[in-house]
Inverse folding.
C-alpha cells in the first residue's frame, strides 16, 4: 500500500506502559485519513498516554504504531521530521508570553523553514485569518481572552500545514460560547485543509457532533470504537457509565491515582 493511502494512524496490538505500570493494552485502532476521531474516556484512563505514543514521546512496550503510513521512528532526526507533520494543541496553549500572537505563530515557521521574512509574515496573516483573529496579530497572550488564546495556539499548531492534528482537551477552561467557536473551528479546518484530526476530550456532548468516529478507553483498553451514533446505543456498561457520568459502576472512580508514589 502506498504511504498516502494508509490510514493516518494505525495501532496494532499496542501496549503502553509508564514505568512498571501498564496503562493501556491490546490497542488496535485505525484512524482514516480526512476523519475526525474523538477519543473519550475518564480522567487517568490513558488518553494523553495514547497521544504520546503517536508523537513518539512514549515507545510502546508491545505492538506497532504507524503514523501517516510509517512506523513512528526511534531515530531522533526521523522522529523530528515526523513531528513536523503533526500539529499538536495542548491544554495549556503553550504560548510564549513575551511574544505577540503573530510572533508566536511565526515561531515554528522561523524554526523549521528557511522562508524569507515577507513570506512568513504572509503565512502568519493567513493562519490568523483561518482562526478569525487577524485583528489580534499584535496582541500579547495576556491581552487575549481564553478562547482567543486557544485560537492563536491553534493557528500556531497549523503553521507548518501538518496533515495530522492532535488536540488534547481543546475545550478545557472555556465557556460554552468559546467552546462552540473552537469546536466549529476544528471541524472547519479539518474539512477545508483536508486534515485528519484526533480530539482527546471528556467534553462528550460538544465533541461528538463534529466527530466521524468515537473511541472510548476505560480500564486499560478500548471499550468502544465506532460511529458517534452507535456509541449512544452501546450496551457496554463501561461506555454507559462514562456517558452518564455515574460514580458507581465498572469504572472505579479512583482506579488510576495520578501520583501513586506520592
Ligand atoms: N509521565 C508519566 N509517568 C508515570 N505515570 C504517568 C505519566 N503520565 C501519565 N501517567 C499515568 O498514566 C495514567 C494515564 O494518564 P493519562 O495522562 O494518559 O490519562 P488521561 O486519560 O489523559 O487523563 P486526563 O483526562 O486527566 O488528562 C495515569 O494513571 C497517570 O498517573
Ligand atoms: Mg490527559
Amino acid at each position: 500500500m502506498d504511504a498516502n493511502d494508509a490510514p493516518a494512524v494505525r495501532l496494532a496490538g499496542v501496549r503502553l506502559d509508564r514505568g512498571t505500570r501498564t496503562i493501556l493494552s491490546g490497542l488496535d485502532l485505525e484512524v482514516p485519513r480526512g476523519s475526525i476521531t474523538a477519543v473519550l474516556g475518564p480522567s487517568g484512563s490513558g488518553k494523553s498516554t495514547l497521544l504520546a505514543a503517536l508523537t513518539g514521546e512514549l515507545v510502546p512496550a508491545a505492538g506497532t504504531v504507524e503514523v501517516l503510513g510509517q512506523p513512528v521512528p526511534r531515530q531522533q532526526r526521523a522522529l523530528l521530521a515526523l513531528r513536523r507533520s503533526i500539529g499538536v494543541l495542548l491544554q495549556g496553549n503553550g504560548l510564549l508570553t513575551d511574544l505577540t500572537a503573530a510572533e508566536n505563530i511565526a515561531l515554528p515557521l522561523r524554526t523549521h523553514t528557511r522562508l524569507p521574512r515577507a513570506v512568513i509574515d504572509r503565512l502568519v496573516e493567513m493562519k490568523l485569518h483561518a482562526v478569525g483573529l487577524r485583528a489580534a496579530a499584535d496582541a500579547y497572550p495576556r491581552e487575549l481572552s481564553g478562547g482567543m488564546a486557544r485560537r492563536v495556539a491553534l493557528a500556531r499548531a497549523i503553521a507548518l500545514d501538518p496533515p495530522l492534528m492532535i488536540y488534547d482537551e481543546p475545550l478545557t477552561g472555556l465557556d460554552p460560547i468559546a467552546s462552540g467557536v473552537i469546536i466549529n473551528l476544528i471541524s472547519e479546518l479539518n474539512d477545508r485543509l483536508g486534515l485528519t484530526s484526533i480530539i482527546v476530550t471528556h467534553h462528550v456532548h460538544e465533541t461528538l457532533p463534529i466527530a466521524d468516529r468515537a473511541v472510548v478507553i476505560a480500564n486499560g483498553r478500548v471499550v468502544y470504537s465506532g460511529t458517534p451514533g452507535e456509541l449512544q446505543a452501546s450496551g457496554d456498561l463501561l461506555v454507559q457509565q462514562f456517558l452518564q457520568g455515574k460514580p458507581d459502576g465498572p469504572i472505579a472512580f479512583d482506579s488510576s491515582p495520578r501520583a501513586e508514589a506520592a
